[in-house]
């Protein structure tokens, strides 16, 4: 086995982990992922690329571990000997981070430090350089300090999640500057897909819409509809992660579309697409409000474009439609158009719960 193309991904079972795995496998990498032990299967998003480890030449291998467990992270690093590590694992829900702040900080903040320190020691002992990608977030910008937000915009985090991401960001910079490690931060704005977790607002809407069309659900309860986000397509965004680790020097990059839209606009496009009026179905529930909100995010991806040659390929409207198509298809309902549909090998799991948080 050559050492040239082995990658390790934390958070491989998440939205981004699944797309990144596909990308790296296409590029000829041997992909190793860290998964958590759960009482039910949590590998739905990667089942279509999973291979029986008893076979020869398997290219996707999974290891049990957790970002809160430094000993295991070190053991996996020694075993896998990756040349690139993508740290995507996180308690990634902003609203939930207000309910579980300490766990969120441990996973997102301390988890990143544990991994960075494991890599530092591994490099010192073996002399092998490992390139590290940190999944930073536009949530770090939080309260609007500048429009659009770019790499030099000051951070003003507004949630335990965002505070922990800021810590992880600076720790990643610190390992680069203190020890000369190749550690890069992506500052990624919201990115979505048919694989998006069902409790994030975009997927919550498209999933509910499909269930409304299918007659399984009557109401959709949401919180603040006024906030604005810069939404892109997850499959585009994982390419930027890979590109960051192929550069001569480690650096930090904003990855965004440069456009912003409100939740109401998302509702307009998605419901109009199936000839419904969202105002007939959407109701307010204060439980979905956050103690502090991030009102407006819009990123400036100029540096990513100039230095990485990265650009988004899917428009906002196409993104909304491909997500609606994905959820309609998962219920075997016909899609208004097939032109924008993501033909996805991943089968979206048919969660039978009526509502999701
Ligand atoms: P998801 O929530 O879909 O996936 C998170 C992943 O992290 C899952 O694989 C999850 O495992 C894993 N995980 C959770 N807790 C732990 C832990 N304690 N130890 C190890 N793994 C853990 O997130 P996305 O794929 O959407 O995002 C990927 C990363 O990018 C995250 O760090 C997120 O914060 C960040 N990010 C995401 C953006 C977006 O718009 N999607 C924008 C900017 C940053 P399990 O499946 O078992 O729950
Ligand atoms: P965000 O995404 O907080 O931006 O974090 P989310 O989709 O959860 O919220 C976006 C906006 O929608 C409003 N909203 C609701 N949100 C949810 N989840 N559920 C609702 O019912 C609802 N109603 C209104 C929110 O208040 C918010 O303003 C995502 C995550 O992927 C992070 O991990 C990532 O870092 C950032 O994007 C960039």
Structural class from helices and strands? alpha/beta
Count of DSSP strands: 13
CATH architecture of the domain at 6-191 and 231-255: 3-Layer(aba) Sandwich
Largest sheet: 7 strands, parallel
CATH topology category name of the domain at 6-191 and 231-255: Rossmann fold
Q: What's the gyration radius in Å?
A: 20 Å
What share of residues is helical?
25-40%
Note the total helix count: 10
Mean pLDDT, to the nearest integer, reads: 94
Neighbour order of strands in the largest sheet: 3-2-1-4-5-6-11
**The CATH fourth-level homologous superfamily of the domain at 6-191 and 231-255:** NAD(P)-binding Rossmann-like Domain
The level 1 CATH classification of the domain at 6-191 and 231-255 is Alpha Beta
- Overall morphology: globular
Listing every helix as H and every strand as E from the N terminus to the C terminus, the arrangement reads EHEEHEHHEHEEHEEEHEEHEHH
Low-confidence stretches: 347-357
* Percent of residues in beta strands: 5-15%
Cofactors, ions and other ligands in the entry: NADPH dihydro-nicotinamide-adenine-dinucleotide phosphate, guanosine-5'-diphosphate-rhamnose
Protein name: GDP-mannose 4,6-dehydratase
InterPro entries: GDP_Man_deHydtase, NAD(P)-bd_dom, NAD(P)-bd_dom_sf
Catalytic activity: GDP-alpha-D-mannose = GDP-4-dehydro-alpha-D-rhamnose + H2O
GO molecular function: GDP-mannose 4,6-dehydratase activity; NADP+ binding
């Amino acid at each position: 086995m050559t050492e040239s193309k082995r990658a390790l991904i934390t958070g491989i079972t998440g939205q981004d982990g699944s797309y990144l795995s596909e990308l790296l496998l296409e590029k000829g990498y041997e992909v190793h992922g860290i998964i958590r032990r759960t009482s039910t299967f949590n590998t739905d998003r990667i089942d279509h690329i999973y291979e029986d480890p008893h076979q020869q030449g398997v290219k996707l291998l999974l290891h049990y571990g957790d970002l809160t467990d430094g000993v295991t992270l070190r053991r996996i690093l020694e075993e896998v000997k990756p040349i690139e590590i993508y740290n995507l694992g996180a308690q990634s829900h902003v609203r939930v981070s207000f309910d579980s702040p300490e766990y969120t900080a441990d996973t997102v903040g301390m988890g990143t430090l544990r991994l960075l320190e494991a890599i530092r020691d591994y490099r010192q002992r073996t002399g092998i350089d490992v390139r590290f990608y940190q999944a930073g977030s536009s949530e770090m910008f939080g309260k609007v300090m500048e429009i659009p937000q770019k790499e030099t915009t000051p951070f003003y985090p507004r949630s335990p999640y965002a505070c922990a991401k800021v810590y992880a960001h600076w720790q990643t910079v610190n390992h680069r500057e203190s020890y000369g490690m190749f550690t890069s931060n992506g500052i990624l704005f919201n990115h979505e897909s048919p694989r998006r977790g069902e409790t994030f607002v975009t997927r919550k809407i498209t999933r509910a819409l499909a269930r409304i069309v299918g007659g399984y659900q009557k109401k959709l309860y949401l919180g603040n509809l006024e906030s604005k986000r810069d939404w892109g397509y997850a499959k585009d965004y994982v390419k930027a992660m890979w590109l960051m680790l192929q550069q001569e020097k480690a650096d930090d990059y904003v990855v965004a579309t440069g456009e912003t839209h409100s939740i109401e606009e998302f509702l307009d496009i998605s419901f109009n697409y199936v000839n419904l009026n969202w105002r007939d179905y959407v109701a307010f529930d204060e439980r979905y409000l956050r103690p502090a909100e991030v009102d407006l995010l819009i990123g400036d991806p100029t540096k990513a474009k100039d230095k990485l040659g990265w650009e988004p390929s899917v428009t906002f409207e196409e993104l909304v439609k491909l997500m609606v198509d994905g959820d309609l298809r998962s219920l075997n309902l016909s899609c208004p158009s097939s032109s924008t549909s993501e033909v996805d090998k991943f089968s979206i799991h048919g969660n039978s719960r009526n509502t999701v948080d």
